[in-house]
Design brief:
9 helices; 6-stranded mixed β-sheet; 39% helix; single chain; alpha+beta
Length: 273
C-alpha cells in the first residue's frame, strides 16, 4: 500500500508509526492509537486544522479502519483512555502549550501548514472541565441551546451542582433569571463557558429547589437556558455554526439566540423571546 501513496502520505505514516506522543509502548499499534487520539484532540485543544485524509490513510495502514477508532469500534475504549490522559496532561496552560507544540512539531504532516500555534494561549485561562462530545450532558446541552428540546435549565443546574462546578446557593441572577458561575469554566469543543443562566416556570420546582429560582416582579422571562462566554458574538456564532446543530420546528415559539451581554462577554441560549 505504501507504494501507492505520495511522499507526504508516507511521511505521515512514518510519523504515525514512529512517534509516541503520550508514552513509549512496546506495541506499535498502541502508539498509533495514541497518536491518532492526540491529533484529533489537537483540533479542540490547539485549534489545528487536521488533514483527515492523511489520518484515514495512516489509520487504515496501521490500525485497521477509521471505524475501529470511532465510537463503538474495536479500539474506541483505547481512544477514550488516551483522551482521559490528554485531558490530565493539558489541565494547565503550560501543559496545554507543551502538548500543542509537541504535536505540531512531531506530527506536522497531519496539519494545515499555514496554521501556527499561538503561544499567547498561555494568557488565556484554560477551562477546568471538558465536556465530552459523547456524553449525555453534551447532547442535553446541544438540544437545549438549539431549542430542539424545550428549555429545562433545572437538569443542567443540578448536574453541574453535583459535579461541584456551580454552587446553587450562590445565585447571582436578576429579574427572575438565575445565573451561576461555573467554577474553572466549562470547555465545550474548544470554547470556554464561565456561567450558566436559566428560568423555570414550574412552581413545584421552585418549592423543591428554592435556591435555584426566585420570581421577581414583572413579566416572566419564560422557560429559558443560556451559557455565557468571554468572547465576542461573532466568535460565539462561528463556534455554534461549526457544531452544525439546527433547531426543531416543533418548538418554533422558542428561539436559539446569541447576544452581546457586556464588554467581551456573550451568551448563547434558548428562550421564548
Amino acid at each position: 500500500m505504501l507504494l501507492n501513496i505520495d511522499y507526504f502520505s508516507r511521511k505521515a505514516i512514518f510519523a504515525f508509526f514512529a512517534m509516541s506522543l503520550l508514552h513509549s509502548s512496546a506495541d506499535a499499534g498502541d502508539d498509533a492509537i495514541e497518536n491518532f487520539t492526540a491529533i484529533i484532540a489537537s483540533k479542540q485543544l490547539c485549534g489545528f486544522t487536521v488533514n483527515m485524509q492523511m489520518v484515514s490513510i495512516s489509520v487504515n495502514s496501521l490500525i485497521g479502519t477509521i471505524e475501529s477508532v470511532s465510537p463503538g469500534g474495536e479500539h474506541w475504549s483505547e481512544v477514550q483512555r488516551n483522551s482521559d490522559r490528554i485531558e490530565i496532561l493539558t489541565q494547565t496552560s503550560e501543559g496545554r502549550i507543551s502538548f500543542c507544540n509537541r504535536v505540531k512539531s512531531e506530527m506536522s504532516s497531519f496539519f494545515d501548514a499555514t496554521v501556527k500555534f499561538d503561544n499567547s494561549v498561555k494568557e488565556v485561562p484554560i477551562a477546568k472541565t471538558i465536556v465530552r462530545t459523547d456524553s449525555n450532558f453534551y447532547f442535553h446541552l446541544m438540544n437545549q441551546l438549539s431549542c430542539t428540546a424545550k428549555p429545562n435549565p433545572t437538569t443542567s443546574f443540578l448536574h453541574l451542582n453535583s459535579l461541584k462546578l456551580i454552587d446553587i446557593h450562590k445565585n447571582r441572577g436578576a429579574d427572575s433569571v438565575s445565573c451561576f458561575d461555573i467554577d474553572g469554566g466549562l470547555d465545550i469543543e474548544g470554547l470556554r463557558f464561565d456561567f450558566i443562566c436559566g428560568f423555570s416556570e414550574d412552581r413545584l420546582i421552585w418549592d423543591l429547589f428554592p435556591d435555584l429560582y426566585r420570581r421577581a416582579p414583572g413579566t416572566s422571562p419564560g422557560e429559558s437556558i443560556s451559557l455565557g462566554a468571554n468572547t465576542s458574538p461573532k466568535k460565539l456564532k462561528e463556534w455554534w455554526q461549526s457544531r452544525g446543530v439546527a433547531g426543531n420546528p416543533q418548538f418554533s415559539s422558542y428561539t436559539s439566540h446569541i447576544d452581546h451581554m457586556s464588554e467581551g462577554i456573550s451568551e448563547i441560549g434558548c428562550s421564548p423571546f
